[in-house]
Amino acid sequence: xxxxxxxxxxxxxxxxxxxxxxxxxxxxxxxxxxxxxxxxxxxxxxxxxxxxxxxxxxxxxxxxxxxxxxxxxxxxxxxxxxxxxxxxxxxxxxxxxxxxxxxxxxxxxxxxxxxxxxxxxxxxxxxxxxxxxxxxxxxxxxxxxxxxxxxxxxxxxxxxxxxxxxxxxxxxxxxxxxxxxxxxxxxxxxxxxxxxxxxxxxxxxxxxxxxxxxxxxxxxxxxxxxxxxxxxxxxxxxxxxxxxxxxxxxxxxxxxxxxxxxxxxxxxxxxxxxxxxxxxxxxxxxxxxxxxxxxxxxxxxxxxxxxxxxxxxxxxxxxxxxxxxxxxxxxxxxxxxxxxxxxxxx
Length: 346
Fold this sequence. Notes:
With 346 residues, this protein is of the alpha/beta class.
């Protein structure tokens, strides 16, 4: 991105797990930065973060923080985004938001660059980053949708504890040690920090991510359902989801059943997936090659395998999709959007 205009960039939630990855990617991608502002809550303000050999002091995020800022990447929770993004927009800042605050707002583009990057140009100051589990699924569905059409999607997710924050990782590791040492486990965080009842995550699978809605689905499941329709631009798409937390640190895995509208050849499907931007096909049953969370960790791509025709419906496919939830599921998707904004403004 040489010979380009330089931008004043802010990262909101700079000390969090996603914020740290955003900062690392901005450096690694050599994003055209004039000045980088690192913003956080008052509690984390004052700490220092290294960026390209320079120590930057984290400041408390306030409305005035966005004076002179061209692009802001938000990853500090929905309440912070709701409070500060309107203030940032007033000051001329284009915001890329990693929270759910604006995702379903009809005025806000919900963008996965490999799927609908053209929607960025419709923004009114904010572009929303989808839910981590939605991103990797729609990225995989897109080439199939374009070639065959899709009528129905059934997804079961196996989501890493890092999606619930650093404290959830600590809890899982602590519980694992306690159980191996024969001690009693006292769950304190999962499935949902703000709810009274907690469950053990070590050596367990918890079929609840986020709170339950009135229809029996969780908010996480409803995000996948609604966001998929919005991103694909197809309200007729039938989507249902079951989201499960498992004791894995990084990397969400998904079992996806897809009903296509036209017939397909499995080898052609594999080639379509292999050729799709940002996707890596790992599908060799003879060699036991398929996507694994441990191998996807730290990588920007989304991995797909176990591609096979469904036995009960000849127009349906079964897929296994894995991606690093902090990278493509959050930080990398946001940085990709920011790169597109930067290119558009040159």
